[in-house]
Amino acid sequence: MPVDSPAAWPALLRPATAITGLALLWLVESRTPAASRPGALQNTSRLRHAARNYGLAAACGLTVLWAAGGLIIATTEYAEHHSIGLLRSLPLHTAASTALAILLLDLWTWAWHLACHRIPLLWRFHRVHHSDTAMDVSTSARFHPGELACSTAARIPVILLLGVSTAQLLLFETLLLAVSQLHHSAITARHLDRWLGWLLVTPGIHRLHHSRNRDETNSNYSAILSVWDRLFRTRSSVDGALMEPPGLSGMDGDDFQTLLGLLKTPLISPHDSPKHPASAPQTSALHPPSPENQTVPISEP
């Protein structure tokens, strides 16, 4: 990418944000007493856990990410070259257009995340992310290559419809990465939930989404701005929430936690783990079965 390209600085900003965020949050997590880490790494080697999650991220990079990134950038440049998309038809200043682009992309991310929980085929891939039993900053990189491929295919028509520029998309991806690293981190900070949670997704808000309780798993889908869950009534309150280890029933063993196990997860169905997050009650010692978390099984193709 040329140095004078408008997308050059956002492109450099994203990897810098990834490295800086990882280093800072890893340090903060290290200074947090193990007993205070909410369901994270109390009985697990941090380095082994991070190696598995970032190993999966490397597998994504080697198999899908390089092609997906090129395809997405080609799509934004096509929209830019042909002046197509909603944002280009509106008489907006560059700053206003960028703010609207980030807002709409964040809304799309909420909708896609919801779809990953509602559509059985997508859930097969997305449950790799939810099966992490020791949630920390490295969990933000724990996504299956198949999920990345599906999300790339789904984003292309959205980018064309909106007419998002390359710089706008890279800026959004940088913000998404930074907030994702924060809200997956093993940090207990209730003041963040109280004072920042009205605007952004905080660790407490997103940790509830990784709960083993089905009703909590099927809530708090927002990625950057927390407003979408309040607007569409998919929000679970952090106040009074019981903290427990994250993960999915039947997927705690090493067969599902090694790098090979993570890659094979979409192809197998543990007998005691629901095929779909709404297909059976997700319960635990902290959330025993009750009429509120019972549902009729949903069949999976």
UniProtKB/TrEMBL annotation:
Gene Ontology cellular-component annotations: membrane
Main location: membrane
GO molecular function: iron ion binding; oxidoreductase activity
Biological processes, Gene Ontology terms: lipid biosynthetic process
Places the protein is found: Membrane
Stretches that traverse the bilayer: 12-28, 54-74, 94-115
Domain annotation Fatty acid hydroxylase: ranges: 99-234
Segments of skewed composition (Polar residues): 292-301
Region (Disordered): 267-301
Official protein name in the record: Fatty acid hydroxylase domain-containing protein
